Amino acid sequence: MNREDLRMLSEFIDRSRRIVFFGGAGVSTASGIPDFRSARGLYLQQEGNLPPEMILSSSFFYLQPELFFDFYRKHMLHPEAKPNAAHLFLYELEKKDKLRGIVTQNIDGLHKAAGNIRVYELHGNVHENRCMDCNASWPMEKILRSEGIPRCDCGGVIKPNVVLYGEPLEKYVCIGARREITNADTLILAGTSLAVEPAASFLDDFRGKHLVVINQEPTPADERADLLIREAVAEVFQKLMDGTV
Ligand SMILES: [Zn+2]
Predict the structure, then answer these.
(1) How far, in Å, from the CA of 142 to the mean position of ligand 1?
(2) For residue range 133-148, what is the model confidence (pLDDT) as tens digits?
(3) How many C-beta atoms lie closer than 10 Å to residue 97's C-beta?
(4) Active site residue 127
């Protein structure tokens, strides 16, 4: 890892007071949660050649709920996952009042588990589940422990609060996320190739001083970045926490 890059990142953070972190699947891989886009081939083999995007769609949920929940339990829920260095570093930044917010495409809830409060979960959170009939809320364990279609005490189907393909993003989460990005002085984009719209277009709202991209693969934001680090974000933040910069 390039020492100069780390030093520059550390300086940007020191100088900033309204950092926003925008993250995707690459933030959680160090917690043992695979990036389901890069693991796509694996799912295709296992699931009768149905692409995960189809199984995780709103229409599939209503038409084939049992198959949906089989896949969802097997691949989307990771009860053993714990926050990694990326999550812990961001919690430290929020405690120091440097971080305005986290915008994430991940549904694993690990930023909240690490202690962060201002988290904008664009695609929802597997820990929030609601009965479609009576609106009672249920923990993830209820889905994990059930077989077939998970049901509320009232008999209604329990639906995870995750945004399925074909469903719109939650309006107020989007408004909050865009507001934070608009007001940020530094934006750190990490662990996402920015393939998912409309989230990718949120970047256009950024008017601050420092755009930092930390990602192992190229992203459309690379050209605009003031600092580009081609490394895993957990490793980068671990180095900053170690103070070896
Ligand atoms: Zn119910």
Answers:
(1) 13
(2) 999 999 999 999 999 9
(3) 9
(4) no
| Beta-bridge partners for 120 | 103
Dist. CA 111–CA 33, nearest whole Å: 14
**Residue 185, token pair as written in the block:** 């002085």
What spacing in Å lies between the alpha carbon of 69 and ligand 1's midpoint? 18
Which residue is it, tokens 């926490």?
Answer: 241
- Amino acid residing at 66: E
Structure tokens at 200: 């990718």
Whose tokens are 């926050």? That residue is 83
Q: Taking the CA atoms of the chain, what radius of gyration do you get in angstroms?
A: 19
- Tell me which H or E stretch contains 241: helix 233-242
Catalytic pick among 87, 123, 127, 210:
123
Q: How far is the CA of 138 from the centre of ligand 1 (A)?
A: 10
CA distance 60 to 53: 10
pLDDT per residue as tens digits for the range 168-208: 999 999 999 999 999 999 999 999 988 777 777 888 999 99
Q: Residue 188 pairs with which residues in a beta bridge?
A: 21, 212
- The Å distance, Cα 154 to ligand 1 centre, comes to 4
Q: How far is the CA of 163 from the centre of ligand 1 (A)?
A: 20
> Crossing angle, helix 3-15 and helix 233-242, to 10 degrees?
70
Give yes or no for a contact between 26 and 216, defined as CB atoms under 8 angstroms apart: yes
The alpha-helical segments, DSSP class H, found in 64-123 are 65-75, 85-95, 110-114
